[in-house]
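Re-run with default settings, no changes from the original entry. Doing this only to confirm the output is reproducible before filing.
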Amino acid sequence: MSTPPSEHTRSRQSSISSNDSGASAGSAGQQAPPPFHASLAEQQLDPLSRAYPKPAQEIDVREALARKPMKWTLGHYFKETPTREPHAQTVDRATRALDLEAKKRELLKAKDEIRMLALPKQVLHGPR
């Protein structure tokens, strides 16, 4: 009791078959949907020309402005920015140069230690 494929199941089948000569499903009377970005651009409207629903109750503007800004909003980041401490900057170039030299010596010493651990003992002490 098999039934012929309905229009719904036919639309799920591949539009290209091994017998097909490169013609798409458009030749069967169906048009391919437009690219996503084209349909998205058609759906977007100017925010001022949209129809918005009326609020359920009267909006208290003072209360709304007094609320703490939600995270991921520009207001949140403007309020958080002044409370952050600026990075400590070394003004004295001589002090900075000495600090960098000390760090460089530490890194070179650590590099030599890692090399010593990685090399086999025969290379370090010679063959016995």
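The first helix runs from residue 7 to 12. The chain has six helices and no strands.
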